[in-house]
Amino acid sequence: MSLNTPLDSMPPGMEYDVAKKTNRFVFLLKSLLRSKTGLIGLLIVIGVVFTALFAPQLAPQSPYTIDLDKMLLPPAWMEGGNPDHLLGTDNLGRDVFSRILYGSRISLIVGICAVAVAGAIGAFLGVICGYYGGIADHIIMRIVEALIALPNILLMLVFVSVFGPSVLTLILVMGGTTWTGYTRLIRGEVLSLRERDFVRAARSIGTKDRVIMFRHILANVFSTFIVVCTMNVAGAILSEASLSFLGLGIQPPTISWGYMLNEGRTYLATSWWLATFPGLAITMTVLGIIFLGDWLRDVFDPRSQGRRS
To answer: Burial, 288: exposed, middle or buried (Cβ in 10 Å; 0-12, 13-18, 19+)?
Structure first.
């Protein structure tokens, strides 16, 4: 069925589905245009994603090429700057702007994948706890409370030190230490839904528990789950930057914004641009994700609009 198919030639009931989806899209578009922060956040996120996807085409220089004759060049608009290096060069003569473009890839990959791992674990355990309760709920929630009592950054440092820093290790460690919030959220939502009429009706016709949990109940909390995941991507990006800044995150030759901060802190007094521009990239990306997450929360949770009004 193509998008250009006339409504009167569609099967019965199809017209309603198309109209419903169209109305929902129009509602989201109008809501986004009314929200200045949401629109700014979306534009920032799109820009970062575009930069990550097309970094090889956008980078004016190779981010790995060492040129000792051009060490610590200031940004192009400053005295002594070089037009070929817009944001200057680092202590090995590598182009800072190109390295920032390539660093966006690692930040997005680690942030999104870590949240995907944590969300999958948390959603699964949260549905089990909320639907069945009993001993499984008791054991899992005690584990959740014990992990919440420990600082996440401390757990990450321990595991990364043991297993060694790499992109895969960071994703698994960050995902494996941040799933507790998702579990508590999904469990609370499932507890409020498991006695609803549509769940009782599904049980009465013999629907299997796994179908009720993952097709009916989880589908009803999916919008809230997506909003929380979006907000937590920003936290995951900051965690990756923190670990890389401490030297336990992404290792060279892989480029990350956190490791660029780690390299630039030695030269803060003399070559401020080495740490400033990667820091600004992290700040803008996190702010964009937070702005987008705030808008999504307002769209999918009308209660938040009531609290703000």
So the answer is: buried
pLDDT at 117 over 90: yes
Supply the pLDDT for residue 293. Answer: 85
How far apart CA 36 and CA 54 sit, in angstroms, is 27
C-alpha span between 227 and 162 (Å, rounded): 33
- Nearest-CA neighbor of 241 among 254, 260, 228? 260
pLDDT at residue number 44:
93
Per the CB < 8 A criterion, the answer to whether 163 and 105 are in contact is no
Contact yes or no for 34/42 (Cβ under 8 A): no
**Residues present in the chain in total:** 309
Cβ burial 81-119 (10 Å sphere, 16+ → b, else e): beeebbbbbbeebbbbbbbbbbbbbbbbbbbbbbbebbb
- Higher pLDDT pick, 17 / 82: 82
Question: Is the pLDDT at 18 greater than 80, yes or no?
Answer: no
Which residues on adjacent β-strands are paired with residue 95?
A: 89
